[in-house]
């Protein structure tokens, strides 16, 4: 008992994590797809953004499918940023799946299965649902029960909208529904014409003052407008993967929550493909190819590449966007060297978009945007110093310094970050260049320095 | 310069004309539905009554006629109204499409599809969270 009394409850303030590309809202293009200099969190990279914009437009119009696009460029030149921008520009209508090349190496799933699932997650199927409903506010409801308690019940209900009012005679079955939902005068309800299902939407606002005491869960809604008998059409976009999962009998839909879908049999996929094709021929469904983004594409190996090569030829294939920062390097899983570490035959199918290193002015602009994103007010001089650091080391390192220097400045209760804060964190945290210089200098004092020489050539797939 | 101005005005006129037409159709659907509900009530009443003959108002005239005949007439009316509403609803889609086109908005996708059958929708609803 005493332990229980000691318990205290604290409010937990939720901290939103800020991702590296959380400041990107779109591609920052105008109506004619010309890139604005600084817009929607995007800076510079005009040609690449314009190219990405054209791709996005083609995807939106459903003109291309089964194509492959490669974003190639040096590290931290905004490849992932452009992909995130594409995702934002596509909106919720087209599916966008993002994964890293190394994600496919999992023990639970084969590489090709992971790729197949990713590909099918990126293809949407548009379907339409149509229901005839009667929607109105209950003005009066009258149910006559036979005196014996059992037998046929008959009833009458008066429904109204803002425009009209009408009576319905109720049958035995629908009276059950009304009683189950506890419908009374003043409720706003819908009746599904096909199934006779009655749903209570809430109570009408005009009846809000009927009682002094109402339950907290009472929802007040407006009296419906227009006609009583409406046709409701809803267009859904589901991905092929979702249909796969609900049809793979071993897992069922619960797998959608846990994400643990395991392997899906090829027969299931074939069945789904046939069904979707059938729907398409009947005019019941439209294929809506989306985008699959594969970051760090050089991490894929030769098996994945040949699988992709084949998968892109299928008539239900999304657009695959890959990003890599490698130059001419070994294709993983082989001893052959190839541009970007991607086999020539796949490269041949690709459209390559190149990103170029940022200029000093652009770097400053990006740092400014990141400062805003991280709620950090930075002194103009400090920003200049940080820009200098970014040009000499890397943009990523400089962005990390924003967060740390902001913390340092808050420690001394200052309102903005000054040059000294930046200097302090610069001395506290090493960048890659300085760290490796130190390592070289003091190599002898570290452990196992003697075996380092023969190890250095054994690293595969790394040309740094 | 003059050309641009007239072009803009023509565009605006056309947009407004379409928007007006859409609203007008909407009102018409509501009015038709009102009639549909009244006809339905009438059919019920005639069906329920024990009399052999029913009084029917045709325009401003009241006519007494056989129950079966009256029901047939009302049912015919109901069918015409239903057809009319369906026609207006499909017109509405075309008009909204044209209107969006004039406003440089992307066309609404998927509304020209045939609906899924009830079983198929039911299958999705029970299996897919958030459908």
TrEMBL record, chain A:
<dbReference type="Pfam" id="PF17856">
    <property type="entry name" value="TIP49_C"/>
</dbReference>
<comment type="function">
    <text>Proposed core component of the chromatin remodeling Ino80 complex which is involved in transcriptional regulation, DNA replication and probably DNA repair.</text>
</comment>
<dbReference type="GO" id="GO:0045893">
    <property type="term" value="P:positive regulation of DNA-templated transcription"/>
</dbReference>
<dbReference type="Pfam" id="PF06068">
    <property type="entry name" value="TIP49"/>
</dbReference>
<feature type="domain" description="AAA+ ATPase">
    <location>
        <begin position="65"/>
        <end position="357"/>
    </location>
</feature>
<keyword id="KW-0804">Transcription</keyword>
<keyword id="KW-0067">ATP-binding</keyword>
<comment type="function">
    <text>Acts as a transcriptional coactivator in Wg signaling.</text>
</comment>
<dbReference type="InterPro" id="IPR041048">
    <property type="entry name" value="RuvB-like_C"/>
</dbReference>
<keyword id="KW-0678">Repressor</keyword>
<dbReference type="InterPro" id="IPR042487">
    <property type="entry name" value="RuvBL1/2_DNA/RNA_bd_dom"/>
</dbReference>
<keyword id="KW-0347">Helicase</keyword>
<dbReference type="GO" id="GO:0006281">
    <property type="term" value="P:DNA repair"/>
</dbReference>
<dbReference type="GO" id="GO:0000123">
    <property type="term" value="C:histone acetyltransferase complex"/>
</dbReference>
<protein>
    <recommendedName>
        <fullName>RuvB-like helicase</fullName>
        <ecNumber>3.6.4.12</ecNumber>
    </recommendedName>
</protein>
<dbReference type="GO" id="GO:0060828">
    <property type="term" value="P:regulation of canonical Wnt signaling pathway"/>
</dbReference>
<keyword id="KW-0227">DNA damage</keyword>
<dbReference type="InterPro" id="IPR003593">
    <property type="entry name" value="AAA+_ATPase"/>
</dbReference>
<dbReference type="GO" id="GO:0005524">
    <property type="term" value="F:ATP binding"/>
</dbReference>
<dbReference type="InterPro" id="IPR027238">
    <property type="entry name" value="RuvB-like"/>
</dbReference>
<dbReference type="GO" id="GO:0140861">
    <property type="term" value="P:DNA repair-dependent chromatin remodeling"/>
</dbReference>
<dbReference type="GO" id="GO:0005634">
    <property type="term" value="C:nucleus"/>
</dbReference>
TrEMBL record, chain B:
<dbReference type="InterPro" id="IPR030482">
    <property type="entry name" value="PDRG1"/>
</dbReference>
<keyword id="KW-0143">Chaperone</keyword>
<comment type="subunit">
    <text>Heterohexamer of two PFD-alpha type and four PFD-beta type subunits.</text>
</comment>
<dbReference type="InterPro" id="IPR002777">
    <property type="entry name" value="PFD_beta-like"/>
</dbReference>
<comment type="similarity">
    <text>Belongs to the prefoldin subunit beta family.</text>
</comment>
<comment type="function">
    <text>May play a role in chaperone-mediated protein folding.</text>
</comment>
<dbReference type="GO" id="GO:0016272">
    <property type="term" value="C:prefoldin complex"/>
</dbReference>
<comment type="subunit">
    <text>Component of the PAQosome complex which is responsible for the biogenesis of several protein complexes and which consists of R2TP complex members RUVBL1, RUVBL2, RPAP3 and PIH1D1, URI complex members PFDN2, PFDN6, PDRG1, UXT and URI1 as well as ASDURF, POLR2E and DNAAF10/WDR92.</text>
</comment>
<dbReference type="GO" id="GO:0051082">
    <property type="term" value="F:unfolded protein binding"/>
</dbReference>
<dbReference type="InterPro" id="IPR009053">
    <property type="entry name" value="Prefoldin"/>
</dbReference>
<dbReference type="Pfam" id="PF01920">
    <property type="entry name" value="Prefoldin_2"/>
</dbReference>
<dbReference type="GO" id="GO:0005737">
    <property type="term" value="C:cytoplasm"/>
</dbReference>
<dbReference type="GO" id="GO:0006457">
    <property type="term" value="P:protein folding"/>
</dbReference>
<protein>
    <recommendedName>
        <fullName>p53 and DNA damage-regulated protein 1</fullName>
    </recommendedName>
</protein>
<keyword id="KW-0963">Cytoplasm</keyword>
